[in-house]
Please model this.
Amino acid sequence: MSFTFPKTKKLGYDPAEVDSFIALAREQFAHRDDQVVSATDLRRVEFKLVRGGYSVSAVDGAIDRLEDAFADSEMQKSVANAGLDATRDRVVAIKTLITGRLDRPKRKHFASSGWILRGYDRRQVDRFLASVAAHIETGRELDLNSVRRAVFKVKRGGYAEIQVDAFIERVVELLHLERHS
Model:
């Protein structure tokens, strides 16, 4: 895999950090049986922003493609080792976790950040949750990239960001699993 990223005159990702992380990803591709970098690592990676850095959208797109490839590879290994039933059981377990959040009262799906701190806008997050609920209940299409790139305004008294971010990770994992079960 070869990556070259355009640089921006504005703020972009620190090239040294990106290049170092991409080198780890290449090592993973070269040694597929070793666990150098996982799809979860790719989902959680963050880079410093610097003036004149790599284009954020170009790097994010490449990381998304890598995450998909790693998730597919990990899923194939999981199915080969544990069988398709274990994968289906994982889908059920994740859906149960997600549904537990979705069943909470509107505007109370996650803990509040309080009035001193800022958190994600409750209305925006609740709209996002409605699309997740529709996917689980009816099988309506839920675009993986739109879930990964979900952005919410920050407000006082909003939802605790760490909880919402963890929930989004579970939804991404579910969408990856559904492609293979």
Observations:
- The mean pLDDT is 89.
- The beta strands are 11-13, 49-51, 118-120, 154-156.
- The CA atoms of residues 54 and 81 lie 39 Å apart.
